Amino acid sequence: MKRLVLRACVAAFAAVLLAGAPAVQAKELSGELEIFSWWAGDEGPALQALIDIYNKKNPNVKVINATVTGGSGVNAKAVLKTRMLGGEPPDSFQVHAGQELIGTWVKADRMEDLTPFFKKQGLMTVFPQGLLKNIGTDKGIWSVPVNIHRSNVMWYIPANLEKWGVKVPATWDEFFEIAPKLKAQGIVPLALGENWTVNHLWESVTLSVLGAENWDNLWSGKLAFDSPVAMNAWVEFTKVLEFTNADASTLSWQQATDMVVDGRAAFNIMGDWAAGYLSTTKQLAPKTGFGWAPSPGTSGKFMFLADSFGLPKGAKNRETALAWLALLGSREGSDAFNPLKGSISARTDSDLKKYNAYGQSAAADFKKDRIVGSLAHGVTANEGFMNDFASIMEVFLKTHSPVATAKAAQQVATKNGIGK
Amino acid sequence: MAQVELRDVVKKFGSTQVVHGTNLTIEDNEFIVLVGPSGCGKSTILRMIAGLESVSGGEIRIADKPINEVDPVDRNVAMVFQNYALYPHMTVFDNMAFSLKMAGDSKQEILRKVNEAAEILELSPYLNRKPAELSGGQRQRVAMGRAIVRQPSVFLFDEPLSNLDAQLRTQMRMELKKLHLKMKTTTIYVTHDQVEAMTLADKIVILKDGFIQQVGSPVEVFERPANRFVAGFIGNPPINMLPGVFHREGESSSVTMGALTLPVPEARNLQDNQRVLVGIRPDAIKAGDSVTRFPKEWRFTVDVVVAEILGGQSLLEFTAGKNTMIAELEGRILARQGESMELGFDLNRLLFFDPETELALY
Amino acid sequence: MPGPVMPDQAIGTSMRNKDRISAFLTLLPSIILIGIFVYGFIGNTFWISLSDWGGAAALAENPVKSYVGFANYLDLFTGFLGGGFRQDLVNAVFYSVMLLAGAIGIGLILAMLLDNKPRGESFFRTVFLYPMSLSFIVTGTIWRWMLAPQGGVNILPTYVGLPPLRFPWLSSTDAILLFNWQNLLPIALYLVSLVLIIWGLWRLKNNPAKALVLLIPGVVVGGSVWLWGDLLPQALFMEEIHGFNTATFGIIMATIWQYSGYTMALYLAGFTGISQDLRDAAMLDGASTAKYYRYIALPMVKPITISAIIILSHISLKMFDLIFAMTGPDNGQTGHPALNMYLTTFRANDFARGAAIAIILFIIAATFIIPYMISSYRQRRSR
Question: What is the ipTM of this complex?
């Protein structure tokens, strides 16, 4: 088995070399590779595991790990932009797969189309079609996803729910039934954190109201933000917010999750990085210690977000960068990285034994569910829209008017060319 | 109308005592100068009178009222500081008017008093200027004006002239004196400059290390110093001070300093063979025509070391019987080193001090 | 303090020319560097703010920038989507005013207390100055914890047996001093008239003629806005309410905490620089401690007050990291134009609009510093 994998890798490599630099033939790679990311801290070891494998395979390549920490990538993105504008792109850089990459870098014609690379590597078949649709455009595929996270997950403590006598709601209507009961007991029905977690909650609520088809239509421009259907999402969102904690804006997502763990709140909707936090930091056992379910009304839908790496035009070390991308797309690479990062592989053929209970369940869903992209994490809308979404949310929180908010959202969408 | 009285006044800073039980009475309208080397406690005494320092022991009375616990402003004293302490952001007028404003005088009243003081001090043209735009002498006058407008019962001066150049200092000294004659206010003046003390004072108080050495009129402290320190401190050029031995033979007495023996004309309460310090004021030594006015025994031939001509006067350093002395002589003395010269000594002005106690022996 | 002017005719003209040339040559490198890297870049930023650089191809290798005039500015002040920026601007005004009042007031009081040399003066000086040495991120994190709804400041009263406070320091959505952005023009004119009238009344005592020149236009402007204010164009097509968001209060507290020690040190240095004689003189002149500070010490340290105002107002205009650490980047309640500029430029890729915000901030900063520079230049000339 091992030998087989190895042989596959070697073959893949040869293919890369042939595709990338036909003149060089199957010579061993040498030189440098600069990879740019905001992965330090918790994600550092996962990235290091990948670099270790890369080093083993290409001992003559010097890997430069350029990390810019802080602000969940805000700082790194700013640094990246100044580098790119200055004509000094790194060989490969981390970016949220989807419109965050496409809207900024593909539209600016700064990325290489990876379709030939995907075909050579056989990635067209191992990645789900829904994923490929989200990371590409009609002009090509633009990045290699390293990991997959799910956004629409609801977290809870089974023992607590039993104590309070409530069941996990499958729809928002069920939630609205149990929420007043929880509130009467002095329990916050839904824990919420600072600003971006509000956006995160919004996409789960909106997905449940619109359904997968209309969600996609919203972002392809086929469904207007101020259409009655889309407006309904804001109505529903108003209702949901009534059952959240008042001090949300002062809490980090971890603190919001803590509320659930401590029994001060019943549920929390957060991406599945919360699984890592609950099991590693909070020392709770998956399934028994903490439980999860798709956020209300989104069962059968997998709202994904992914970190990915692309190949900027004008990269100084194109060959070593291609080898890096090949490693990221490979089963070996992704199965080394994802268990450490607490995410799942984008490949449908990953080795599930390497993942924990949550990862296995998520991987199973990823294989069968309808895949949609996340807004809050850069898949469905470009950076301009995401930035202005903050002011949409501001309008909403100030006016509590779904009509005004939906109108504002449509203006923002038009301005930022959503669906174009 | 204010007499200032210090009774056993003591000042301590922490464990260091700097003023040791001072007793002093300053009569109404008197101009008294506290003089002494730095660190003698003169400024401290002044500041205690002003109320800027607390009194550690004893009592200070102004106009027969104890004021130890009275706020500075209520003591009715005004002070002129060494560096003038003018408020730099205020005009001359505002500087002078400040205390009146604080006292709540009416605008007309302030205007009248300030203008009056400005008139006296010839400051009227400068009332709208800031201190930075004035010369040193003008600033000095503003500082005085600020004191005058309050019409205090006691003026306190803390080395007010020491920041001025020599010429201006002499001029301001005269003005100060005139001002005092005009205002007739009790004045306490602190300086380390004995010339200022001699020229200004009705009464000089000489201090050293927190003790009063002598209180007296300028002539008194010059001619009859209480001790060696006073004799040395007062007078410029300084007194010639030489160790000697007193001899008494019947009615006549003399003093021997090395190879020089001077007859002592007055009967002194000294023992034969008593060791003394002999003080001779440089101006008690004469040359030229005036030598002939002295009896023959009072004339001596000396060897010139160096002669300095100071305009109308000359300073002569000479040796007589291996003693080096300085004489302050009238006229221009042209003499070379090693030349001999006849000098007359006014032996009536000889001063004797005990070498041990350093007290004057009369 | 320069003394009286002395004509320096003694120095030869050729000598002075030589001096000037060598001084110029010494300064030349820094003149060139500052010219390029400060003024050149300000100019470039201004040009960008007049362009349409942004949108989908903003980051292309050679982005297309076309001239659009003041469209970006117009959009920020009157456009539908500029609401966030407008609230940020209002916030910035309140940040500045409150920081100035708080840090200077508290710093001054502390300096006065320490100026009277209490026991342990140097210890307290260090204590008060310490926050200054922290970075904004650290301050922000500390205060974020202290101002948490269920902890820190809010539970302080419980130590003396009182019920805990319930004020949501950083998450409050209340606002006071509300006004409608539509009425921006009348409000600005009212402010102008108010300033003129107050200034006029202040001058009335010393210079009645000049006072009338101020008072009459003040009353005329105020009165005509009151009578015909409705005729003024509205700044916006819809009602938009802005005000002093109470959530900013926590951030203001943290900034004051950090900077009052600094102003204290500034003032303390100034007070210590005043000679003891001056203080004694004031005492003999009958000034109480309060009057000493009011009439002598404070006027004398006016340059310090001015530099403190300039420094603090600049700090309040550059407030970024503290807000970032305390309430995060997308919190409209506590937003600030500097934060908005960063996000607009580097997250939304709207470089032109980001440049426009930067230029607006630059102009606001200039309004603080230029009058100061003019007055100090004039003072130097008149001496």
Answer: 0.80
